[in-house]
TrEMBL record:
SUPFAM superfamilies: TPR-like
Family annotation (InterPro entries): TPR-like_helical_dom_sf
Superkingdom: Bacteria
Organism: Leptospira idonii
Protein name per Swiss-Prot or TrEMBL: Uncharacterized protein
């Protein structure tokens, strides 16, 4: 009788532990599905900033999700909740606000660099690869890495000829660097590419 009670107790104990183990992944899967829906909802309505905490939670649960890392970097790039420095503020406040904005752009750049290069390695024919290079180029531009931004825009349009705005942005960057001949060259490339796209349509 005592042995039977012990066996029943052991069985119940193991059953409870097993149930918890099985419930863990199932619960996590449900949570990631809910988070995905919320994230895509925000991005469809152009509310990237609101998706940031959901993306951070999602990436805690699924840290190897390449696509969601890229969406996270894009959300950081387009975030609009960081306070902008004002002329009527004291110098320390302006410096702190500028640092926060710069840190955010640097973080986006770093995430793009790691994951766009990884995407290119694992999926070299991904149809969105050019667009990811294009968005990454903006994060470098906003981080004041203008030369790197130029190279990324060049790569973007090489991967996807429809990204003609890349030429426009390269021309603008060269102008800001005082490289007028290069700027003129890319203004012409932009005009030519736009005409070709119009003819194609």
């Amino acid at each position: 009788m005592d042995k039977t009670i012990i066996y029943i107790f052991k069985f119940l104990f193991l059953f409870c532990i097993g149930s918890e183990i099985w419930a863990g992944p199932s619960k996590r899967k449900e949570e990631t599905i809910v988070l995905k829906k919320q994230i895509f909802g925000f991005h469809r309505s152009d509310e990237e900033t609101k998706s940031i905490p959901y993306l951070e939670k999602y990436l805690t649960l699924s840290p190897s999700e390449l696509y969601f890392k890229l969406i996270y970097a894009k959300a950081l790039l387009y975030r609009d909740d960081l306070p902008v420095p004002r002329n009527d503020e004291n110098i320390e406040t302006r410096i702190n606000k500028t640092k926060a904005i710069q840190t955010n752009y640097n973080k986006a750049s770093k995430i793009f660099q790691e994951n766009v290069l990884h995407l290119e390695k694992v999926r070299p024919r991904d149809p969105n690869l050019g667009r990811w290079y294009y968005v990454w180029a903006f994060s470098e531009w906003f981080s004041d890495n203008k030369e790197k931004s130029i190279k990324l825009f060049q790569k973007a349009v090489k991967l996807d000829y429809r990204l003609t705005e890349s030429y426009y942005n390269i021309a603008s960057l060269y102008e800001s660097l005082g490289q007028w001949k290069d700027a003129e060259l890319y203004w012409r490339k932009y005009e030519k590419a736009e005409k070709e796209l119009e003819e194609e349509d």
